UniProtKB/TrEMBL annotation:
InterPro entries in UniProt: FAD/NAD-bd_sf, Geranylgeranyl_reductase
Protein name: Flavin-dependent dehydrogenase
Species this protein is from: Metallosphaera yellowstonensis MK1
Amino acid sequence: MRLGIVGGGPAGISLAWFLKGTKIQATVYEGLEDVGKKPCAWGVLKGIESYLELPKEAIYSEIRGFRIFLDNKLVSEVRGRERLGYIVNKPLLLKRLGEKVELRLNSKVVFDREGKLKVNGKVEEVDRVVVATGHYSLDKGATIPAIQYITDLPFDPEIVDMYFYSDLLGYGWIFPDPNGAKIGVGGYAEIPFLMEKLKGLTRGKIMSFHGARVADNGIIEDRLNGRYVGEALGAVYAVTGEGIRPSIITSKIMADSLLEGKDFGKEMRRSKIYWTLKVHADVIRRAKASNSVKGLERVLLKADPKLVIKFAMGDFGKLDLIKLFGSAII
Ligand SMILES: Cc1cc2nc3c(=O)[nH]c(=O)nc-3n(C[C@H](O)[C@H](O)[C@H](O)COP(=O)(O)OP(=O)(O)OC[C@H]3O[C@@H](n4cnc5c(N)ncnc54)[C@H](O)[C@@H]3O)c2cc1C
């Protein structure tokens, strides 16, 4: 079977990587001239190693500590010897994985009226298509804006900081970067408000600025039809904006479903990633409905920091949720 994968981000490239050497001949079409161009803070949490081998040269640092701030005040801190994740060089990681699969750059895909895949205006004969175009294919209502500076702030390469605010349904972050730090903010707000928040976080000399939208609705049920993976399917943790690892996990489920002739939608619905993404999205939905972030605030201030970090990382079970939110969330 010839599979056309539209989009060369973590979801598209990993899907082809999971399928290499199998009966499925996958080709990834990336519209841009290179991979890894999309603005991103390059944080990938632990667990990824059981899906992909991360080339050493693509790992900038190993994360061993998390700090969580509410209104710029430290409320949770976990630091130890355990590796909690990585800061990767995302373009290099995608490039290295891309070298092992059939990846066509400068290959913008459109679908013609009959639904045929056209690359730079020419129809490509494929048997099946998977769309991995990230937030680009999502409605504005299913995403929030996120903006980021890269600065020369010297920052501990083993620590990531997450910021939450009582007047913003969203998040801020300071992540280590080879140049210093990536400092960003995303949320339900107009850009000028986010810019103000970002200014409040920013330290060091600004070297560059960029932004993009991020999905925040959890898995999109209508897209569980075997045609979408990654952020295009909604695979981003809504409370933290983490999308790389979840996107790769959806691609693994897609690859296994294709190879074993299973229904992708069913396999997804049974998976832990589906449920944990849904819980995150529910937390955001509730906050939106009540027009308040009080619930999240209470959790951040009162709960065991280790549990808060587990929740943030999507590494929680029902009991953890009850401890954090009470039985209302389940
Ligand atoms: C500012 C910011 C910071 C972030 N930081 C983090 C972080 O630190 N950690 C984390 O886990 N997540 C982070 N995210 C989210 C993360 O970047 C995404 O969730 C993740 O990259 C999604 O992977 P994907 O492969 O599904 O989509 P993408 O990475 O968006 O890749 C989609 C690809 O499809 C290509 N494409 C789109 N349309 C077409 C077309 N018609 N034809 C061909 N190609 C096309 C695009 O050029 C792109 O390369 C961040 C997001 C933002 C905006």
